[in-house]
Amino acid sequence: MDVAVSIQQVEKRFGALRALAGVSLDIRAGEFFGLLGPNGAGKTTLISCLAGLARPDAGHLRVMGHDVVSDAGAARRVLGVVPQELVFDPFFTVRETLRIQSGYFGIRNNDDWIDEILAELDLTAKADTNMRRLSGGMKRRVLVAQALVHKPPVIVLDEPTAGVDVELRQGLWQFVSRLNREGQTVILTTHYLDEAQALCGRIAMLKEGRVVALDTTANLLARHSSHALVVRLAAGDTLPDALRERAIAEDGAWRFRLATPTDIEPLLATLRVAGCRLADVQLLQGDLEDVFLDIMHAGGAGA
Ligand SMILES: Nc1ncnc2c1ncn2[C@@H]1O[C@H](COP(=O)(O)OP(=O)(O)OP(=O)(O)O)[C@@H](O)[C@H]1O
User: Which among 3, 219, 282, 288 could bridge 193 via Cys, Cβ 3.0 to 4.6 Å?
Assistant: First the structure.
């Protein structure tokens, strides 16, 4: 197994607060990996440690084999980070910004790749526009472009689609998915769990500075998500008492959480025996949002 990012027992304190309380995980080369968690869980702190912007109090982080503290320069060159905050120099144009960023990595004559990134991110028409004249969504695209100028094998995207319109969001995911197919390792944090479910092969969930779940997206969905049956009774029919405790009233219908799809049969049988007539029935599949809420409310460590 080729490990792209190795995180071992990382701790980070801010005063009395333990932002990271011993995080360990390995991310394999070529993975599209999701780092999820509620506000304040420690995602950005972990990314800052990975990018060498914050120094861990304990533990080790390596990117493509390079320790981020003792081999910081090499670790920085193999990593591209799209930060959450919109930080940029307002006096330069988009192209100048990307040339300067290339210069930081000692890359000259990078215009072919810069043009390609600009085209992929729909920024070609803005190449000669000053950064301060761009809209918030366009500035965010430039941050993505900046992270890619040196073609790093590992890209970290910290909430890249916050405040970004639907079209760019789709364009961005197409581009990042292409880079991932071509071999780049992608680490994504997002609060849009539908995006994480669609894109990430494996997911770690953080809570209060600890990893509380770490598994493939498919396994997380299979283990934690449940189905739900939504039943609408014919006018005048009432729900039998035997089912009332389990039922959640929802817009004139009743929702039942099912541990497995086979729970449907006895539920429908109870309704039939009680003489209830069904006006409508819907079987709903749980998604990553259900899994996330389930794990976050479970309280304990799951991994
Ligand atoms: N520079 C700092 N000084 C003091 N506390 C900090 C600092 N940076 C982060 N924290 C605290 O560390 C904890 C983790 O914050 P972090 O930004 O890593 O969370 P996050 O998971 O990225 O949250 P979000 O989803 O809101 O971006 C929070 O309680 C935060 O207030």
Answer: 288
